[in-house]
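TODO from last week: model beta-mannosidase.
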Amino acid sequence: MSKPGERRTRRNSRKKKKKEEEEEEEEKKKMKTEKKKKNMDYCLPQPKAVSRLCRFPQQANTHRYSKVPEMPAYGVFSPTFSSSLYMCVKVGGKVPGSQYTALLDHGLIENPLYRDNDVMLRSLGRQNWTYSLNFSVPAFMVSSTNLTLVCEGLDTVAHVVLNGETLGRTDNMFIRFAFDVTGKLKELNNNLRVQFTSAVLEAESRANKSSYRIPPNCPPAVQHGECHVNQIRKEQCSFSWDWGPSFPTQGIWGQIYIDAFDSAIMRDVAAVVTKVNKEWQVEVQVYFDVIWRSLDWRRGVEGQLVASIMGLNVTFSEMISLTPIRRIKTVVLTVPKTSHVPMWWPRGYGQQTLFTLNVTFVSNLRFWSVSEITTISERTTKLLKLGFRTIELIQEPVKNKFRPHGGWHYFYDQRSIETGLSFYFKVNGIPIFLKGSNWIPADNFQERVTRERLQYLLSSAANVSINSLRVWGGGIYESDDFYEICDELGILVWQDMMFSVALYPAYPSFLKSVAAEISYQVSIQQ
């Protein structure tokens, strides 16, 4: 039996231990509060900094003005959000860029890829961000017949405003948008604003308005991702995937610039190499932007189109006439049999010989007046690399042999007697054993992907004898640098369209956007 003194000692010990536990719990709460405060410091106003619009290196302010909507509570930021709270953060941005890299570059957030920062920073994808730029232009641009603001990549739901006037709205990350700004520019003090709406909230809004369910609604909870990414034309894995976190970026992820011209310019050039009767032929498709404001409307814009393959002494030259309706020209270059062109081969089968295709257009637009005829000439040139090779998909009937003996082997192999088709590729008439891999986006933030980084990654693949890559359909259509490096390294590309593991809406506006996306991507990737 315990003595009274011993019982008192045990009671005091328990009280002391309980007090220590309470103090420890209080310390944890205090540390948690300080961590929240630290992560919310980025919401404070910041000094203005320098950004740029491509081709116009003037100083500018890039900022975000956001009304934070009422939303479900999760993440460390939820206690401060309400439907009436406005926040303003002004930081320098880069083009290409997104809200994550802008804040990271200024030390306002920690590395998004560290530990569970994707969850801690989740609210950044649910806010609206604006890119703003003040700039000047040369005097000759103001008086140009045609001025076009070209946006090669807006991610994703955006409202484009120049000098207070709406130019247009976008909702597809994979389309190049061009806005007519003729007569809208001043020589000094122009302001361009690209106001982005949260892709997460836009996708959620579209799903709520839809009259039918379009699965999958949400990713598995373990991914901490966002829902309804299939409702918008955006990099699907940016809402999370089973291999990566959720970073619903907003920003200008392609180049943005102003084209000034008076008649017509080449916009894109695509080339397809074939072999006909033992002669190589290069079918070149040239896409033009055409404008004319003159009395010579019946003749359109005339000009000289010249296409040549450097090093092979093969040239095409012709006077052509263009209108805004008749703005695509196809020409065929034939390489004589006597040229003995070295062929391009996949890695492991031969050399990767490439030639340069040079396409030049010089326009001649005539302006008529009472006293004189004025001719304006403009020149645009495009260069692209091409290799001479044939490629065939071979699908021939095949039969599998079965064992002549009885037993389960016999019954099992009876199913293999049916005729099927082979599936393999021949390059230059030779069957190719594909040693391939799956290519996902090289970074969660495309603005950080440089040609040097692509060169390193693709060279690493080539060094282990990979000769084919599938560009996965849950990411992005890759850059020109990617495809050029693959050509140089002898890597064949199996190109997905950006639709992966989901059903998609079938309402007219969505289908129209998809049609424009596919038409554009096919025209620039041939």
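Done. The domain at 263-390 is CATH 2.60.40.10 (Immunoglobulin-like).
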